[in-house]
Amino acid sequence: MILPTRLRKNKNIRRLVRETHLSMDDVIYPIFVVDGEGIRREIPSMKGQYHYSLDKLDGVAAMLRDKGIGHIMLFGVPAEKDAEASPAFADDGIIQRAARRLKALDPELYIVGDVCLCEYKSDGHCCFFEENGDIRRDRSLETLCKVAVSQARSGIDMIAPSDMMDGHIAALRTALDDAGFESVPIMGYSAKFASTFYGPFRDAADSAPAFGDRRSYQMDPANGKEALKEVALDVEEGADIVMVKPAMPYLDVISQAKELSYLPMAAYQVSGEYAMIRTAVDQRLLDERAIFESLLCIKRAGAEIIITYFAPQLQALIDAYQD
Ligand code: PBG
User: Fold this and answer.
1) Where does 5-aminolevulinate 2 bind (predicted)?
2) Which domains does the chain have, with CATH numbers?
3) What angle do the packed helices 137-153 and 94-105 form, to 10 degrees?
4) Closest residue (by CA) to atom 8 of ligand 1?
């Protein structure tokens, strides 16, 4: 008789046949840095996540070491935004200063920079528009290139453009190469959907659009094939890593995109996914094992890299549940 349960009989045999394992090398931890002083403030929409001012980064570096986190992604929340998004590409911008500070505290820390305009631009959009509302691609790309180069100059190890402008990977690759940053990889937010699950992040980053929404540049959640087109384009344009975002409602996209290229696949378990699971665990509607399961399943679907706000807990979860 064929009895699949034979291979589930005890811990030993389950360990032998287990297909997916989580490790701290799988995750990137997003961190929000803000202007100001003495700030370590919990983000109301994302319990357990904090806004840090630059003078608090020594504590962050110590926490990262303590939790075994080797990879982070930086988001900046500047005090002032402007119509040009200039705080995004200022050499003394919030991300640029944070990167220098963190590298001084821990030269081994691998820092990914989120490249976008929405946190720095008065209207909260990721790009510039023509008067008639069309995307102004040339100006948007030009500005994004300035952001990427200035981040690389500040010591950021990898660039992750989340703006969803057509042709941005090719433009950023050329800009980085021309500025002498050939060795800085690009992780494209290749299939980034116009998702409601970004809600808590927009509070955290103060980046909700002042008018309209992002549906003229981010993808329609209804479309799977189109996500593959986006991934294929990023591969062609020279991305080093491709990403699907959000993660959990888009596991089908992750697994199909995985088949499409030899590049490492990343998935972003976004703020809404975090808030949902965090709240359910805090209210004891779910056991904390749900956090482990959520990450395990994103990896099983095909993501070798997971960007997750749960990174600080992951080692403890692995110790408890990868049994
Ligand atoms: C910036 C950006 C967003 C996220 C990452 N980069 C917000 C958005 O596109 O509105 C979302 C991250 C999250 O929800 O955790 N464009």
Assistant:
1) 271, 309
2) 22-322 (3.20.20.70)
3) 30
4) 198
